[in-house]
Amino acid sequence: MRNIWITVSYDGTEYAGFQRQENGFTVQEALEKVLKKLTGVHTTIYFVARTDAGVHAYGQECTFYTESSIPSERFKNAMNSLLPCDIRVLKSKEMYEDFSVRKTNYGKTYAYILSEDKDINPFLRKYVWYTGRKLDLQKMKEVAKVLEGKHDFTSFRGNNSVPADPVRFINEVRIIRKNSLIFVYVTGEGFLYHMVRNMVGAFVDAGRGIMTPERIKEILKAKDRKKLGVTAPPQGLALLKVYFEPISHESINEILNTSYYPWTCL
Protein backbone atom coordinates (compact mmCIF):
# COMPACT_ATOMS: atom_id res chain seq x y z
CA MET A 1 0.00 0.00 0.00
CA ARG A 2 1.37 3.41 -0.98
CA ASN A 3 1.36 6.32 1.49
CA ILE A 4 0.93 9.74 -0.14
CA TRP A 5 1.66 12.97 1.72
CA ILE A 6 -0.16 16.13 0.60
CA THR A 7 -0.06 19.72 1.83
CA VAL A 8 -3.43 21.43 1.52
CA SER A 9 -4.41 25.11 1.53
CA TYR A 10 -8.03 26.19 1.90
CA ASP A 11 -10.40 29.05 2.57
CA GLY A 12 -12.64 27.64 5.29
CA THR A 13 -15.48 30.13 4.88
CA GLU A 14 -17.90 27.76 3.15
CA TYR A 15 -16.98 24.61 5.08
CA ALA A 16 -18.16 23.09 8.37
CA GLY A 17 -14.55 22.61 9.43
CA PHE A 18 -11.90 20.21 8.17
CA GLN A 19 -12.92 16.91 9.77
CA ARG A 20 -15.72 14.86 8.27
CA GLN A 21 -19.03 15.17 10.16
CA GLU A 22 -22.71 14.40 9.76
CA ASN A 23 -23.96 17.98 9.58
CA GLY A 24 -22.29 20.10 6.93
CA PHE A 25 -19.80 19.61 4.12
CA THR A 26 -16.14 19.64 5.18
CA VAL A 27 -12.72 19.99 3.58
CA GLN A 28 -11.91 16.36 4.38
CA GLU A 29 -15.04 15.24 2.53
CA ALA A 30 -14.12 17.36 -0.48
CA LEU A 31 -10.66 15.78 -0.64
CA GLU A 32 -11.99 12.24 -0.19
CA LYS A 33 -14.66 12.80 -2.84
CA VAL A 34 -12.00 13.79 -5.36
CA LEU A 35 -9.76 10.86 -4.45
CA LYS A 36 -12.64 8.46 -5.03
CA LYS A 37 -13.09 9.89 -8.52
CA LEU A 38 -9.39 9.47 -9.22
CA THR A 39 -8.84 6.02 -7.71
CA GLY A 40 -12.29 4.44 -7.89
CA VAL A 41 -12.38 3.55 -4.18
CA HIS A 42 -13.09 5.43 -0.96
CA THR A 43 -9.86 6.81 0.48
CA THR A 44 -9.53 8.12 4.03
CA ILE A 45 -7.61 11.34 4.60
CA TYR A 46 -5.47 11.50 7.77
CA PHE A 47 -4.56 15.00 8.96
CA VAL A 48 -2.79 17.11 11.58
CA ALA A 49 -5.26 19.83 12.58
CA ARG A 50 -9.03 19.69 13.02
CA THR A 51 -9.79 23.28 12.07
CA ASP A 52 -13.26 24.60 12.95
CA ALA A 53 -15.96 25.88 10.63
CA GLY A 54 -14.82 29.14 9.06
CA VAL A 55 -11.15 28.64 9.95
CA HIS A 56 -8.59 28.65 7.14
CA ALA A 57 -5.27 26.91 6.44
CA TYR A 58 -2.21 27.56 4.34
CA GLY A 59 -0.43 24.39 5.36
CA GLN A 60 -2.74 21.59 6.51
CA GLU A 61 -0.72 18.37 6.30
CA CYS A 62 -2.44 15.13 5.27
CA THR A 63 -1.72 11.59 4.17
CA PHE A 64 -3.72 8.84 2.51
CA TYR A 65 -3.13 5.23 1.55
CA THR A 66 -3.77 4.07 -1.98
CA GLU A 67 -3.12 1.22 -4.38
CA SER A 68 -3.47 3.58 -7.33
CA SER A 69 -0.65 3.66 -9.88
CA ILE A 70 -0.88 7.44 -10.27
CA PRO A 71 2.64 8.86 -9.77
CA SER A 72 2.86 10.63 -6.41
CA GLU A 73 3.81 14.01 -7.87
CA ARG A 74 0.80 13.91 -10.21
CA PHE A 75 -1.75 13.69 -7.40
CA LYS A 76 -1.35 17.45 -6.86
CA ASN A 77 -2.49 18.49 -10.34
CA ALA A 78 -5.00 15.66 -10.64
CA MET A 79 -6.72 16.60 -7.39
CA ASN A 80 -6.64 20.33 -8.13
CA SER A 81 -8.34 19.74 -11.48
CA LEU A 82 -11.38 18.38 -9.59
CA LEU A 83 -11.35 20.34 -6.33
CA PRO A 84 -13.32 23.57 -5.82
CA CYS A 85 -11.20 26.70 -6.18
CA ASP A 86 -11.18 27.38 -2.42
CA ILE A 87 -9.17 24.18 -1.78
CA ARG A 88 -5.72 23.62 -3.30
CA VAL A 89 -3.18 20.83 -2.97
CA LEU A 90 0.21 22.54 -2.79
CA LYS A 91 2.39 19.45 -3.10
CA SER A 92 2.22 15.67 -3.13
CA LYS A 93 4.92 13.09 -2.51
CA GLU A 94 5.20 9.42 -1.58
CA MET A 95 6.42 8.47 1.90
CA TYR A 96 7.29 5.26 3.70
CA GLU A 97 4.24 3.23 4.71
CA ASP A 98 4.10 4.03 8.44
CA PHE A 99 4.80 7.77 8.07
CA SER A 100 2.23 9.84 10.00
CA VAL A 101 1.90 13.64 9.82
CA ARG A 102 0.23 13.62 13.23
CA LYS A 103 2.90 11.58 15.01
CA THR A 104 6.00 13.10 13.42
CA ASN A 105 5.31 16.84 13.65
CA TYR A 106 6.89 19.13 16.24
CA GLY A 107 4.15 21.73 16.38
CA LYS A 108 2.26 24.42 14.49
CA THR A 109 2.03 28.16 13.92
CA TYR A 110 -1.42 29.74 13.82
CA ALA A 111 -2.11 33.31 12.76
CA TYR A 112 -5.02 35.58 13.65
CA ILE A 113 -5.93 39.01 12.25
CA LEU A 114 -7.67 41.71 14.27
CA SER A 115 -8.85 45.09 13.00
CA GLU A 116 -9.32 48.22 15.05
CA ASP A 117 -11.47 49.79 12.33
CA LYS A 118 -15.14 50.46 12.92
CA ASP A 119 -15.90 50.16 9.21
CA ILE A 120 -15.65 46.65 7.76
CA ASN A 121 -13.46 46.22 4.69
CA PRO A 122 -15.58 44.08 2.34
CA PHE A 123 -12.45 42.43 0.92
CA LEU A 124 -11.15 41.32 4.33
CA ARG A 125 -14.41 40.54 6.11
CA LYS A 126 -13.92 36.76 5.80
CA TYR A 127 -10.44 36.88 7.35
CA VAL A 128 -10.55 39.50 10.11
CA TRP A 129 -12.20 40.07 13.49
CA TYR A 130 -13.38 43.67 13.57
CA THR A 131 -13.08 44.80 17.19
CA GLY A 132 -14.15 48.36 16.36
CA ARG A 133 -11.84 50.04 18.87
CA LYS A 134 -8.22 50.95 19.52
CA LEU A 135 -6.33 48.25 21.41
CA ASP A 136 -3.32 48.69 23.69
CA LEU A 137 -0.64 46.58 22.00
CA GLN A 138 1.75 46.63 24.96
CA LYS A 139 -0.89 45.29 27.34
CA MET A 140 -1.73 42.55 24.84
CA LYS A 141 1.93 41.54 24.67
CA GLU A 142 2.24 41.46 28.46
CA VAL A 143 -0.67 39.02 28.77
CA ALA A 144 0.60 36.95 25.84
CA LYS A 145 4.00 36.57 27.53
CA VAL A 146 2.38 34.85 30.51
CA LEU A 147 0.96 32.13 28.25
CA GLU A 148 4.32 31.19 26.74
CA GLY A 149 5.92 28.03 28.08
CA LYS A 150 4.31 24.94 29.61
CA HIS A 151 0.91 25.34 31.29
CA ASP A 152 -2.31 23.54 32.07
CA PHE A 153 -4.63 25.23 29.55
CA THR A 154 -7.91 23.82 30.90
CA SER A 155 -9.28 27.37 31.17
CA PHE A 156 -8.62 27.86 27.45
CA ARG A 157 -10.34 24.73 26.16
CA GLY A 158 -13.57 24.66 24.19
CA ASN A 159 -16.74 24.87 26.29
CA ASN A 160 -17.80 21.29 25.59
CA SER A 161 -14.41 19.60 25.32
CA VAL A 162 -12.71 17.59 28.06
CA PRO A 163 -9.09 16.93 27.04
CA ALA A 164 -7.35 13.87 28.46
CA ASP A 165 -4.22 15.97 29.00
CA PRO A 166 -4.72 19.76 29.06
CA VAL A 167 -1.01 20.56 29.45
CA ARG A 168 0.50 22.25 26.38
CA PHE A 169 3.75 24.03 25.54
CA ILE A 170 3.62 27.37 23.73
CA ASN A 171 6.94 28.26 22.10
CA GLU A 172 6.11 31.85 21.28
CA VAL A 173 3.34 34.41 20.92
CA ARG A 174 4.10 37.34 18.66
CA ILE A 175 1.80 40.35 18.24
CA ILE A 176 2.45 42.97 15.54
CA ARG A 177 0.53 46.08 14.50
CA LYS A 178 0.47 47.31 10.91
CA ASN A 179 -1.75 50.34 10.41
CA SER A 180 -5.19 49.40 11.79
CA LEU A 181 -4.53 45.64 11.66
CA ILE A 182 -3.06 43.56 14.47
CA PHE A 183 -1.46 40.22 13.63
CA VAL A 184 -1.24 37.53 16.31
CA TYR A 185 1.05 34.53 15.78
CA VAL A 186 0.92 31.59 18.17
CA THR A 187 3.44 28.76 17.85
CA GLY A 188 3.17 25.68 20.03
CA GLU A 189 3.74 21.95 20.22
CA GLY A 190 0.01 21.27 20.47
CA PHE A 191 -3.32 22.97 21.07
CA LEU A 192 -6.62 22.20 22.74
CA TYR A 193 -9.93 22.64 20.93
CA HIS A 194 -10.62 26.42 20.59
CA MET A 195 -7.41 27.18 22.51
CA VAL A 196 -5.95 29.70 20.06
CA ARG A 197 -9.26 31.52 19.64
CA ASN A 198 -9.66 31.70 23.42
CA MET A 199 -6.12 33.06 23.74
CA VAL A 200 -6.88 35.75 21.15
CA GLY A 201 -10.06 36.64 23.03
CA ALA A 202 -7.95 37.18 26.16
CA PHE A 203 -5.48 39.34 24.21
CA VAL A 204 -8.31 41.55 22.97
CA ASP A 205 -9.60 41.89 26.54
CA ALA A 206 -6.08 42.95 27.53
CA GLY A 207 -6.02 45.50 24.74
CA ARG A 208 -9.30 46.88 26.06
CA GLY A 209 -7.87 47.17 29.56
CA ILE A 210 -9.98 44.44 31.19
CA MET A 211 -7.35 41.68 31.32
CA THR A 212 -3.99 41.84 33.11
CA PRO A 213 -1.02 39.48 33.49
CA GLU A 214 -2.04 38.89 37.10
CA ARG A 215 -5.59 38.03 36.08
CA ILE A 216 -4.47 35.64 33.33
CA LYS A 217 -2.28 33.83 35.86
CA GLU A 218 -5.32 33.44 38.13
CA ILE A 219 -7.36 32.08 35.21
CA LEU A 220 -4.67 29.52 34.36
CA LYS A 221 -4.54 28.42 38.00
CA ALA A 222 -8.35 28.16 38.26
CA LYS A 223 -8.56 25.55 35.46
CA ASP A 224 -12.08 26.75 34.72
CA ARG A 225 -13.24 27.82 31.25
CA LYS A 226 -15.97 29.98 32.80
CA LYS A 227 -13.31 32.30 34.22
CA LEU A 228 -12.22 33.33 30.73
CA GLY A 229 -14.01 35.75 28.44
CA VAL A 230 -15.09 35.65 24.82
CA THR A 231 -13.89 33.19 22.19
CA ALA A 232 -12.56 35.00 19.13
CA PRO A 233 -14.66 34.32 16.01
CA PRO A 234 -13.32 31.74 13.56
CA GLN A 235 -12.78 33.79 10.41
CA GLY A 236 -9.62 35.55 11.63
CA LEU A 237 -7.76 32.29 12.28
CA ALA A 238 -5.50 30.37 9.91
CA LEU A 239 -3.14 27.43 10.29
CA LEU A 240 0.06 28.68 8.68
CA LYS A 241 2.61 25.96 9.24
CA VAL A 242 3.15 22.48 10.62
CA TYR A 243 6.76 21.82 11.63
CA PHE A 244 8.53 18.54 10.92
CA GLU A 245 11.80 19.69 12.47
CA PRO A 246 12.41 21.06 15.98
CA ILE A 247 10.94 24.55 16.35
CA SER A 248 13.35 27.44 16.82
CA HIS A 249 13.13 31.23 16.85
CA GLU A 250 14.77 31.16 13.43
CA SER A 251 12.25 28.71 11.97
CA ILE A 252 9.38 30.87 13.24
CA ASN A 253 10.99 33.96 11.69
CA GLU A 254 11.31 32.13 8.40
CA ILE A 255 7.58 31.42 8.36
CA LEU A 256 6.63 34.97 9.28
CA ASN A 257 8.89 36.31 6.53
CA THR A 258 7.02 34.22 3.97
CA SER A 259 4.01 35.64 2.15
CA TYR A 260 0.88 34.00 3.53
CA TYR A 261 -1.54 36.70 2.41
CA PRO A 262 -3.27 38.18 4.31
CA TRP A 263 -1.93 36.56 7.50
CA THR A 264 1.69 37.66 7.35
CA CYS A 265 2.60 41.25 8.07
CA LEU A 266 5.21 41.96 5.37
From TrEMBL:
The active site is at D52. Homodimer. The gene is truA. GO terms for biological process: tRNA pseudouridine synthesis. Pfam families: PseudoU_synth_1. It comes from Dialister micraerophilus DSM 19965. InterPro entries: PsdUridine_synth_cat_dom_sf (IPR020103), PsdUridine_synth_TruA (IPR001406), PsdUridine_synth_TruA_a/b_dom (IPR020097), PsdUridine_synth_TruA_C (IPR020095), TruA/RsuA/RluB/E/F_N (IPR020094). This is tRNA pseudouridine synthase A. Keywords: Isomerase, Lyase, tRNA processing.
